[in-house]
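Before the break, one more example. Copy the sequence into your notebook; we will annotate it together after we see the structure.
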Amino acid sequence: MGRVAAGTSGGGDIDAGRQSFLGRLGLALCGLALCAAVRADGALHSLWELHGKHNTVYLLGSIHVLRLRDYPLAAAVLDAYGNSKAVFMEVDLQEIGSAEVQSEMLTSAVLPEGKTLPDVLGKQRYGRADTLAHEVGVDLSTFDQFAPWFAAEAISQLQLTELGFQPESGVEMYFMERARNDGKSVAGLETVHDQISLFQNMPMDTQAEYLLSSLEQAHDLPAQVDSMVHAWQQGDTRWFENQLRSELGRDPRLYQAVLGARNRKWVPKIEALLNDDKNYLVIVGTGHLVGPGSVIELLKKDGIGAIQR
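Here is what the structure looks like once it is written out:
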């Protein structure tokens, strides 16, 4: 991975270039590219069906950033969209471009005046993080004004971009554009404010460990991306579940904040869709659909079975 081109000026306003980067990063953050999944028979996809009395709700696990060469999507996935009258996503991506959201994202990403990343990480952790960042071609001092969570997400996104992955090519953006052209409504299970608050409210120590964990895994990312896309295309839930455990399982607080608590908020909204007479496509990060406390597990506890397609 080449050296990060984006830079920060010494304390003060964020320029238009950085605001543009925040917007692009926002697309990737809108679901936190964390994925996971249950079994892997060759014909399966990261797609589940729920059946109400008069309708079907499709749950599609997504990868929030993809490459153009990862298209076209599977016929079963396209059929689920075609059979649906409306689409739900983690958030309505059209919120991302608003000045209000950009301002809120910037405020949450930048550390309070007088604080720097070395301050909040401490000498030992910052030294370790700096070494790991340099090993993947990133100058960590680029992010010295930013909160650890933002540094972690930004570095991951920069690395994915260099590997050819773009938020604009992600599953959500693809279906948002199709829905817009087809006159189908798009809505969010939560707001961008909810997602920003998720990180902003993390204790600084948890953020610091999140950054270190992200950097420790950065070495493996180039080797893993093809496996990740292949597993997603094949509905290989086991592969994703193992990844999820390694990324979040070491910190139960992080797991609950990023996945568990949000799943519990979403399930009543998804269940309410089953009372309608039209079909819906619900798209969320695949990690929300598998493992302990997943949307699928919570639905099952409420007596609602999900069939993997």
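Residues 1-24, 27-42 have pLDDT under 50 and may be disordered. The two ends are 37 Å apart (CA to CA). Try to locate both features in your own notes.
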